[in-house]
TrEMBL record:
GO molecular-function term, one example from the UniProt record: S-adenosylmethionine-dependent methyltransferase activity
Start and end residues of each Methyltransferase type domain: 39-129
Coiled coil: none
InterPro entries, per the entry: Methyltransf_11 (IPR013216), SAM-dependent_MTases_sf (IPR029063)
Transmembrane segments annotated in the record for this chain: none
Protein species of origin: Panicum hallii
Entry protein name: Methyltransferase type 11 domain-containing protein
SUPFAM superfamilies: S-adenosyl-L-methionine-dependent methyltransferases
Signal peptide: none
Length: 263
């Protein structure tokens, strides 16, 4: 998975949406303690930075050293570059001791994980009966009818270049195997819906598209998704003024649960 993002690390930082405080407040209120959080697939540390405001200590791990290079240094956040095949003993050594983690988060990376292996790691480090796992994704942006119509034609045309795992995002994580109990006060594990906004001009919007793993995969295959005709269509749909800044909305879908008591 890390290799898909090596060439786009800078664009990823520049164009990806941030996550709203309401999302983190909702998650944090479901953890009885706030001593230690582990952010899996932390990338540029976006979620870890928000968690650092709510938890005493945060560990952010990622398989991409290039992404971690853009993560902000914070006094209570420790970033760890981990290989994809790190064994459980390595998790205990590099990340957290058994039964010591209050919260595990996976922001926009859940669909890349080997879930059975990851769940075994999660159950090992989460506090029994109290530790919480929260995984969320955002789906494609909404701007307005004209821009969205061009965008969805482009997105559907990009489908052959996405990794199969991407279908979990298109499904909003609804069909994902999630063997955890509902957190206190909730009747199910989600998805719970949130949204986030970003202000973008057309250049920003196009750069977001170039940050897709599918964009780079297509380019490596000799296919330019943002061909001249598509760019002209987007320019027209934007209203003719590429410098105009628009509000771009990203829907967010959260699965959240706690470790089952018998585990």
């Amino acid at each position: 998975m890390a290799n898909l993002f090596l060439k786009q690390a800078k664009q990823y930082v520049a164009t990806r949406p941030s996550y709203p405080p309401e999302l983190f407040d909702f998650i944090a209120c479901k953890t009885p303690r706030r001593d230690l959080a582990w952010d899996v697939g932390t990338g540029n540390g976006q979620a870890a930075a928000s968690l650092a405001k709510l938890y005493k200590a945060v560990v952010g791990t990622d398989t991409s050293a290039q992404q971690l290079a853009y993560a902000p240094p914070l006094p209570n956040v420790r970033y760890v570059h981990t290989p994809a095949d790190l064994p459980l003993a390595g998790i205990h050594d590099a990340v957290a001791a058994p039964c010591s983690v209050d919260l595990i988060t996976v922001a926009q990376a859940f669909h890349w994980l080997d879930l059975p292996n990851f769940y075994a790691q999660a159950r090992s480090v989460l506090r029994p009966g109290r530790g919480v796992l929260a995984a969320w994704c955002y789906t494609e942006p909404r701007v307005g009818a004209a821009v969205d119509a061009v965008f969805w034609r482009l997105y559907h045309g990009s489908e052959p270049h996405w990794a199969p795992n991407r279908r979990m995002v298109d499904d909003e994580y609804r069909g994902a195997d999630f063997p955890f109990d509902p957190v206190d006060g909730e009747a199910h594990t989600g998805p719970f819906e949130f949204s986030t906004e970003r202000r973008m001009d057309l250049e920003d919007y196009l750069m977001y598209i170039t940050s897709w793993s599918a964009y780079q995969t297509a380019k490596d295959r000799g296919v330019e998704l943002l061909d001249e005709a598509t760019v002209h269509e987007l320019e027209a749909a934007w209203g003719g003024d590429a410098k105009e800044v628009k509000t771009v909305t990203y829907p967010i879908f959260l699965r959240i649960g706690k470790v089952r008591a018998q585990e």
